[in-house]
Amino acid sequence: MLDTFKPQFQRAIDHLNQELSGIRTGQATPAIVENVMVDVYGSKQPLKAVASISTPDSKTIQMEVWDMSAIKAVEKALIDASLGMNPNVDGKKIRLNMPMMTDEQRQKMVRLVKDKLEEARISVRQVREDAKKVISKQEGIGEDEKHGQLDKLEKFVKEKNEEIEVMGRKKEIEITTI
């Protein structure tokens, strides 16, 4: 029974991982810009679809746009994304220099991480409640087996919540480390 709900639990964890990867830590990482939407070729594309993104050092994000005609659109998208960084265009390359984060910005990012963690916990709880309903409505099995399944479910939920906490602690350390 639990196996049917494992993918839903994993989706909550994967979503949290994606959300956390986009939160600024003061370190340059491609995840900060890879999903910025760029208006090119008549539609919106994520930046990672129109340029290669790298981090030559811990304070610089560099994008090499594959099509020269898209340079202006990429530059505009980066400005519109309000990342707090100004793009520097150099031929086919665009660089973003990460400014030092203030203590206030770091605290704000830590609060954002805590909000994302709470959203993930809520998602896990919702999946747990759905699973509990299915288990309690099962017919043809005894009460002992239902309790056994509920115990396995609670143990699995506890593991997922611990995984969420570990992800949050790691991200907070990244943010608060100067």
From TrEMBL:
<dbReference type="GO" id="GO:0006412">
    <property type="term" value="P:translation"/>
</dbReference>
<dbReference type="Pfam" id="PF01765">
    <property type="entry name" value="RRF"/>
</dbReference>
<keyword id="KW-0175">Coiled coil</keyword>
<dbReference type="InterPro" id="IPR002661">
    <property type="entry name" value="Ribosome_recyc_fac"/>
</dbReference>
<dbReference type="InterPro" id="IPR023584">
    <property type="entry name" value="Ribosome_recyc_fac_dom"/>
</dbReference>
<dbReference type="GO" id="GO:0043023">
    <property type="term" value="F:ribosomal large subunit binding"/>
</dbReference>
<dbReference type="InterPro" id="IPR036191">
    <property type="entry name" value="RRF_sf"/>
</dbReference>
<feature type="domain" description="Ribosome recycling factor">
    <location>
        <begin position="16"/>
        <end position="175"/>
    </location>
</feature>
<keyword id="KW-0648">Protein biosynthesis</keyword>
<feature type="coiled-coil region">
    <location>
        <begin position="110"/>
        <end position="170"/>
    </location>
</feature>
<comment type="similarity">
    <text>Belongs to the RRF family.</text>
</comment>
<protein>
    <submittedName>
        <fullName>Ribosome recycling factor</fullName>
    </submittedName>
</protein>
